[in-house]
Amino acid sequence: MAHYGGRNYSKLTKTGFFVGLALFVVGTGTELVGHALFGSLPQWENSLLFAMALVGFAIGFASPFVFGIIMPLVE
How many domains does the chain have? Predict the structure, then answer.
């Protein structure tokens, strides 16, 4: 059996997924609520919220593959 060097890959996988999910939900939810309450938002807010949604999706999608599959196999 390989020794994992103190890294807890299951915790890293879950934490990365939930951080990505939180970024995605905050980005899309704030954009929807902002447009519903205020009509139009400034362009910098639209860009920020869109970037949050994209980064959250990327982190949430990649984290299980990187920390759950690839890293334990490489070690």
Answer: 1
| Alpha-carbon distance values, 61 to 10, 31, 35, 48, 64 (Å) | 15, 21, 27, 20, 7
Q: What is the Cα gyration radius of the chain?
A: 17
- What's the whole-model pTM score? 0.84
The residue count of the chain comes to 75
Q: What is the rounded CA–CA span in Å between residue 49 and residue 24?
A: 9
Contact between 43 and 68 (Cβ < 8 Å): no
Q: Is the pLDDT score of 16 beyond 90?
A: yes
Look at residue 3 and tell me if it is in a domain.
Answer: no
Domain that includes residue 20, residue range: 9-74
